[in-house]
Specification:
about 350 residues; alpha/beta; Rossmann fold; 2 domains; six-stranded parallel sheet; 14 helices; 12 strands
Length: about 350
């Protein structure tokens, strides 16, 4: 191995890119730009299942790391028997609301997390809300938790041209103006209440617009979401990273009434594309929502009312576009990576 000072747990590199994987890729990309030296350790490619890769991480990975080198595990999990480690723990939703997740996944996390959080040298989390909930559930961790906010790639998430928007509309068959929701289809994203709220909007709005829901399920979630029979609710599945900023730019409004977030990247991504946002007034979303319209995510009526008011007010949407862009621009991956590397050096 080279003489680099730390090693990155590359377990996430075989996974589809959603929130925590994107975080890892973005921070490491900034390390590369700054010529920060590191090595990788990760399960062999031949291990096809996530269960086998997890097992390898817990049993083999600790022996792959020299005693004088720090391991950084960026995506919520790391080997328990590696004390010289920095863990990024985005949130503990699976511990606080196990009913939202697959039972085997929750049991595995309940087995791993207490020992892991006790042993690691440092913990990074992405909001003050996450820090509070982690420290409450795992006493003794507060002193080693650092809050470092996520960033937004404003060179990727920015308002797109009419030509780009038309291309993606054509590709995805989106021929009407639409309200957009993006996220994995799991219970905490609150899609069912959003659909109920949409169904209660004035018929004239629903005749002219679609509710477009982008995202797919994931293995770790208790997947019991019911799709809508309303023809104005469009499920378009997983959207790739290239299409996503164009989709945000095309939307009249972005709505994200999630019940629980450790951060909530889509809110800032939509703002960076100058799209007005409606989101929750709970958990970390309260902390990072800035100029968004906020609602109680439990209240179908509040979601409906906020949607109706914003859809019917072009002037308010116009004001929110510039405010949102200004707010989102404050969250930079460069800063996130710099602070993370500073903590890595401190505990190495």
């Amino acid at each position: 191995m080279s003489s680099s000072k730390f090693i990155i747990n590359g377990h996430f590199r075989t996974q589809r890119v959603t929130g925590v994987q994107r975080y890892a890729h973005e921070v490491i990309s900034q390390f590369d730009k700054e010529n920060i030296s590191y090595d990788w350790v990760q399960p062999p490619r031949k291990l096809q299942s996530d269960s086998l890769r997890q097992l390898w991480m817990q049993t083999v990975m600790p022996f792959k790391i020299p005693a004088d080198r720090l391991l950084w595990s960026p995506t919520n999990i790391g080997p328990v028997y590696c004390e010289h480690q920095l863990l990024t723990l985005h949130d503990i939703a699976d511990q606080l609301y196990p009913e939202w997740f697959d039972r085997k996944y929750v049991r595995w996390r309940q087995l791993i997390l207490p020992g892991l959080l006790k042993r690691v040298r440092g913990i990074v989390t992405v909001s003050e809300f996450s820090k509070r909930t982690i420290a409450q559930l795992f006493p003794g961790t507060a002193e080693k938790i650092r809050v470092i906010y996520n960033g937004v790639r404003i060179d990727h998430f920015y308002p797109r041209t009419d030509n780009e928007i038309e291309g993606v509309r054509e590709d995805l068959g989106l021929h009407k103006p639409f309200v957009l929701n993006v996220g994995s289809l799991d219970p905490r994203k609150n899609t069912s209440r959003l659909i109920k709220a949409w169904g209660k909007l004035q018929q004239s709005i629903r005749n002219e617009m679609d509710l477009v829901i982008a995202g797919g399920g994931a293995q770790q979630f208790a997947f019991h979401h019911q799709k809508s029979e309303d023809e104005n609710v469009r499920f378009i599945g997983y959207v790739n990273n290239k299409q996503l900023p164009v989709l945000y730019s095309a939307a009249e409004v972005f709505v994200y009434p999630s019940l629980f977030e450790g951060f909530g990247l889509p809110v800032l991504e939509a703002m960076a594309c100058k799209t007005p946002v409606i989101t929750s007034d709970k958990t970390a979303l309260k902390e990072i929502s800035g100029p968004a319209v906020t609602v109680d995510p439990i209240s179908v009526e509040e979601i409906r009312s906020a949607l109706e008011k914003l859809i019917q007010s072009p002037a308010q949407r116009s004001r929110m576009k510039d405010r949102g862009l200004k707010w989102a621009s404050r969250f930079r991956w460069e800063h996130c990576a710099k602070q993370t590397y500073k903590y890595i050096k401190k505990i190495s």
